[in-house]
């Protein structure tokens, strides 16, 4: 079956540009997570959705970062006025039901480079 | 100090060797411990999932957790070139869904 997909796989932006990163979770998965993985580091939590509700956005590094999941399936992570420190791989993960009990399945990530 | 510490390596071993990968953690609230494998340009893939202390074995992989010393280990027996990847340890609390990852250890198994 299809796993988590993310698009684009690679994105180059000039500093100050806005970007939008898309995540298609596994069909039927209720929980969706975004992580940021800087070069040579492990993923760091950004935000969590249960269906369309964003229950936790404590990991978003600044108010330039915004995520949505309006219909409880596809999610978009938007970064406004990109800065060089935003360069990283952005990973999306989904899990079937409860975030406490179910395995998080990761997508391949979007590699963002800000010049 | 990060809550989960992991030596980034790199670690290079010959095919067939036993590999030992380790992490330490500082948050006593962590109850669930995971090992993910991440191939280059791919997302992390769950390998092992352990609750509290003890051992768990799955084929050539064994995960160990020692909560008294806050130490997490992954052993790979009869390592294969296809095991070459970055291995990430992760942990979370019982009532917290956020995964806290180590930096990852880059492993190369040479044929």
Please summarize what this structure is.
The complex is a heterodimer of chains A (115) and B (111). With 115 residues, chain A is mostly beta strands. Chain A has strands spanning 5-7, 10-13, 19-24, 31-37, 44-50, 53-56, 65-68, 75-79, 88-95, 105-106, 110-114.
Fold and architecture overview:
- The complex is a heterodimer of chains A (115) and B (111).
- Chain A has strands at residues 5-7, 10-13, 19-24, 31-37, 44-50, 53-56, 65-68, 75-79, 88-95, 105-106, 110-114.
- The radius of gyration of chain A is 13 Å and the shape is globular.
- Helices cover 0% and strands 48% of the residues of chain A.
- In chain A, strands 2, 4, 5, 6, 9, 10 and 11 form a 7-stranded mixed beta sheet that branches.
- With 111 residues, chain B is an all-beta fold.
- Helix content of chain B is 0%, strand content 58%.
- Chain B has strands at residues 4-6, 11-14, 19-25, 30-38, 45-51, 54-58, 61-66, 71-76, 85-93, 100-101, 105-110.
- In chain B, the strands form 2 sheets. In chain B, strands 2, 4, 5, 9, 10 and 11 form a 6-stranded mixed beta sheet that branches. In chain B, strands 1-3-8-7-6 form a 5-stranded antiparallel beta sheet, with no helix packed on it.
- In chain B, a hairpin with a 6-residue loop joins strand 4 (30-38) and strand 5 (45-51).
- The model of chain B has no long low-confidence stretch (mean pLDDT 93).
- At the A-B interface, strand 4, strand 5 and strand 10 of A face strand 5 and strand 10 of B.
């Amino acid at each position: 079956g299809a796993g988590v997909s993310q698009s684009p796989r690679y994105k180059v932006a000039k500093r100050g540009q806005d970007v939008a990163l898309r995540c298609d979770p596994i069909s039927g998965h209720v929980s969706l997570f975004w992580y940021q993985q800087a070069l040579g580091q492990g993923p760091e939590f950004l935000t969590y959705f249960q269906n369309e509700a964003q229950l936790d956005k404590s990991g978003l590094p600044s108010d330039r970062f915004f995520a949505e999941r309006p219909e409880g399936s596809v999610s978009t992570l938007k970064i406004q006025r990109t800065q060089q420190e935003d360069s990283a791989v952005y990973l999306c993960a989904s899990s079937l039901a409860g975030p406490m009990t179910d395995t998080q399945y990761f997508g391949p990530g979007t590699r963002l480079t800000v010049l | 100090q990060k809550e989960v510490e992991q030596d980034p390596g790199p670690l290079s071993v010959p095919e067939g060797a036993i590999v030992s990968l380790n992490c330490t953690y500082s948050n006593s609230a962590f109850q669930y411990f995971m090992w993910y494998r991440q191939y280059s340009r791919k997302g992390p893939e769950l390998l092992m999932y352990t609750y509290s202390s003890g051992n768990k074995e799955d084929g050539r992989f064994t995960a160990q957790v020692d909560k008294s010393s806050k130490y997490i280990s992954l052993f790979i027996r009869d390592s294969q070139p296809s095991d070459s990847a970055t291995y990430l340890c992760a942990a979370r609390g019982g009532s917290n869904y956020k995964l806290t990852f180590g930096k990852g250890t880059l492993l190369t198994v040479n044929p």
